[in-house]
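[job 0412] stage=complex_fold ligand=magnesium ion status=START
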Amino acid sequence: MRINFILSEVWIGLRRNLTMTVAVIVTVAVGMAMLGVGFLITTQVNSMKDYWFDKVEVSVFLCSKNSADPDCKGKGATAAEMETLKAKLESMPEVEGVIFENKAAAYKNFQESSASKTLLEVTTAEDMPESFRVKLKNPDISTPVLQAMQGQPGVSSVVNQRDLLGGFFGLLDALRSASYVLAGVVVIASILLIANTVRLSAFNRRRETGIMRLVGASNLYIQLPFVMEGMIAGLIGSVGAAIMLILAKVFVFEEFQTFLAPGSQLQWDSVAWAIVWTLVIGVAICVVASFVTLRRYLRV
Amino acid sequence: MIHFDNVTKVYANQNRPALDHVSVDIDKSEFVFLVGPSGSGKSTFLRLILKEERPNSGAIHVAGKDLARLSNFKVPHLRRRIGCVFQDFRLLPNKNVYENVAFALEVIGKPRRFIRKVVPEVIELVGLEGKAHRMPDELSGGEQQRVAMARAFVNRPMILLADEPTGNIDPATSIGIMKVLDRINRTGTTVVMATHDAAIVDSMRKRVVELEDGKIVRDQSRGVYGQAY
Ligand SMILES: Nc1ncnc2c1ncn2[C@@H]1O[C@H](COP(=O)(O)OP(=O)(O)OP(=O)(O)O)[C@@H](O)[C@H]1O
Ligand SMILES: [Mg+2]
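[job 0412] stage=complex_fold status=DONE, emitting structure tokens
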């Protein structure tokens, strides 16, 4: 095996087909970056679900003196009303426990769960509403509690945190599906481009390959330069995708994570996994696509 | 060395066979001219020896191997033992004489040291000493054909197939080409040459196999191009 010789053939092939090679590299880079972003969103959503679904509660927000809610009629909840509500909640079979959260506790929770400095600076304890935090036995069965609390005297609003998160996760799931679909489309485009590049390359080098066949070069020797051209283009494209993923982590996910609890942030090891997978998939797609096209255009 | 037994070849979409029940034996270190009008099947005969085409019926043995039973995987090894030259030389225009000859060894994975040793020898054998660094477009047709012969012979094949090697070359230069082929033949290599060149065939007085419409109509040792002449 003459590695030098094959590498020089590969180099000649890549240079001769420069525009097509660049097109392949760009599409592979974009396709693999989309795929990697899909991976990252999946990881992010899973770690956020793990973190949040443990903690979701039904919040029964109480009327305060200057509440804008018409149900409150401008009055704060009285001590008697609060007592009735608490007794009612505790008597319900779906409820595991009820905690009263005053303004100070609400502010403290807010400080802990939000990492955004600007948001913290403009918020004071006085802005925080009082509420009952209702822990459910089964987070999936919340309707009876919601119905029992809705419109009761002294109740400003009832919020199932699960619903808030559900909308948010739905959005993330849609983003992830979108990046997978886009990745699929771009990957198909890159496969077609690779097929065309190999076809052109085989045509450009038909003299060489004809002579190689005639003097008894093995199929491996004849095909390897073409497959390696595809492999190198795939590798460069995937490295481009890796750079894009690192940029996405630094400039998109990290920005976005200032709003997330520390426990659910996307870690660098997930990025590393996404890069390894996209690299393997990107190179594999290019190698397989070149090999399959070669079978059609290079008689051996 | 080459053994055709009742070989018939019909190309796809053709009703007339290109070779029609051809049986012939060519021994080791023989020199054979293959003559006949255009379309009589000479090139087909050579392509069958290389297993570039398969016969529809009949058996072909080359160097003791039954080609029908030779797996595709082994075909390259068969071709390493057969050299080929053509009317159109088939050189690589972006490689010089040395590189064109070395290419044949590089692509079969021969070590660089071996290549450095044998390529100059064979360039000298075909009479191109001192021109190793010329590009093909800096050579005459006759010189280009010598490069092609050097490339075909550099791996010391047992058989050399030549398909109208003098077809693009003037008669005076052709004599030089024939001298090289004769020199190659004298090293023990079997040479089969398809040609239309009556003067060459008549001057060499070698075995002549004549094809017409795919059939062998004459097989004569020390023959001439055509009996009519
Ligand atoms: N690849 C092919 N497909 C179909 N028919 C072919 C093919 N190659 C050759 N033929 C036909 O087979 C017959 C023999 O062709 P071949 O090339 O062997 O003749 P030849 O003796 O070499 O002719 P020439 O002296 O012109 O080179 C011809 O009728 C030709 O048209
Ligand atoms: Mg012919």
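Residues 57-138 of chain A form a domain with the Alpha-Beta Plaits fold (CATH 3.30.70.3040).
[job 0412] exit 0
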